[in-house]
Amino acid sequence: MPYMTASDLRAWYPSLAADSTNITDPMLDSYVEGFSDIAERYRGVAYEPRGVTVTRRICGSRWVADHQQITAVTACTVDAVTTAATIEDASTLTFLSTVSGLLVVTYTHGFASPPALILDACREYARSRALAARSSVPRDAVSTTDGGYTIRYSTPDWPKGRPTGFLEVDALLNQVTDYRRPVVV
């Protein structure tokens, strides 16, 4: 289920409601979908329940999942034998004993619903994308020079805290808890 619908966006922003010819519902829906992908990758967690099946080799009594906020395990086998697994914390499964072999686990992860800051960022992202699509100015200007006509636009740069390049959206996303795990090399 998407974070919000085109109708929700049009109700929130009169400028979107006034132009359903150039700013179509499928366009707005695609912006919401694109934002959810960016937000979830950038913060490392799903903001709505998502089901997934993962296949991995395992040897041990614990397994750390690829996702955060696991809420339910619906199926778990090791070498095609049903195995009981419990959720130890938001991303770790514990088995009754040491298991070894090919783990196939189906689980649900993510929050029950997006927090307010994510919804605010989503609305602003969809609005900004829609208005930029019909404008001659594509992004937020971060600096200008009078006389020399230098304009520098904000563009996506994840290491610098700009996952979308829209300044207000990025500011909102950077206020949300980061669940990403550090990369070990």
Could you please describe the fold and organization of this structure?
The chain is of the alpha+beta class and 185 residues long. Helix 3 (25-43) packs across helix 4 and helix 4 packs antiparallel against helix 5 (167-173). 30% of the residues lie in helices and 30% in strands. The chain starts with 5 loop residues before the first helix and ends in a 12-residue tail after the last helix. The strands form two sheets. Strands 1, 2, 3, 4 and 5 form a five-stranded antiparallel sheet that branches. Strands 6-7 form a two-stranded antiparallel ribbon. It contains five helices and seven strands; from the N terminus they run H-H-H-E-E-E-E-E-H-E-E-H.
Write the layout of secondary structure elements.
Blueprint: H1 6-12, H2 14-17, H3 25-43, E1 50-64, E2 70-78, E3 81-82, E4 85-87, E5 92-109, H4 116-133, E6 141-145, E7 150-153, H5 167-173
Helix pairs in contact: 3-4, 4-5
Count of individual domains:
2
Please state the structural category: alpha+beta
Major beta-sheet overview: 5 strands, antiparallel
Report the order of strands and helices.
Answer: HHHEEEEEHEEH
Helix content, binned percent? 25-40%
Q: How far apart, in Å, are the first and last alpha carbons?
A: 36 Å
The value of Rg in angstroms is: 21 Å
Overall form: elongated
Oligomer: single chain
Helix tally equals: 5
Strand content: 25-35%
Count of individual beta strands = 7
Mean model confidence by pLDDT? 91
Low-confidence stretches: none
